[in-house]
UniProtKB/TrEMBL annotation:
Name by which UniProt lists this protein: Aldo/keto reductase
Entry keyword annotation includes Oxidoreductase: yes
UniProt-listed CDD domains: AKR_AKR5F1
The EC number(s) this enzyme carries: 1.1.1.-
Sequence intervals crossing the membrane: none
Amino acid sequence: MQDVTLNNGVEMPILGFGVYQIPADDTEKAVTDALAAGYRSIDTAAAYGNEEAVGRAIRASGVPRDELFVTTKLWVQDGPAEDNTRRAFDASLSRLGLDHVDLYLIHQPYGDYYGEWRAMEGLYADGRARAIGVSNFHGDRLVDLLTHNEVVPAVNQVETHPFHGRVEDQRLMAEHGVQIESWGPFAEGRNNLFGDPTLSSVAEAHGKSVAQVVLRWLVQRGVVVIPKSVRPERIAENLDVFDFELADDEMARVAGLDAGESLFFDHRDPAMAARLGGVRVD
């Protein structure tokens, strides 16, 4: 497995396993299969409702804790953000059955994320979170946050896939020492990703699947990625992307699919801010 080194020296696998939209009842088996296949990075969130299942799978796996990289995320907090952030973090640790996480992310760029960040800086200083970062932050909010706080986010997890490549966002993050991480690497199949002629042609040339080409394209760009699946054969296939390399022209062909906009929603949309900011997660 290839690692990236975060801005505080912590090493993070460049390819991990995500559990977004996997029902809690199915999560334990999926994570068990992923760990058995060789994944050592697991990404969850309080909002996913499956932290407990992730924790059960980790405990049953027999994989030493120091070989695992576990990420979870903080949802938008009401009231005094600093106090509530600490309580939310404690609740996530309890559900996971862990004494620390490797990466703790602010899930959405809404609410008092400055107060949340101050609390997270404390969790980081205490060693309860080995690294802290953000998710879904556009460049303006990311730079504003890192300019006015002591700890620079280690990671920014954002929608990144062939149809929304985030090249300029990645450049900006790199300039400030922030690691880009992709959610939705397969665009949830939108734009006929798995049948796309360009991706299919590149996949055929390497004897690989379209999914493997997409993951290889991201990894080769230095993008951390967390594909998900509940099918053991797909889970294993998604990890098998380190035995081939895309040529420069193939990288460019895939990059040429970029339309420069989200296939899901824009976090700068006032309606989306109201919608997500109004969701409560216990």
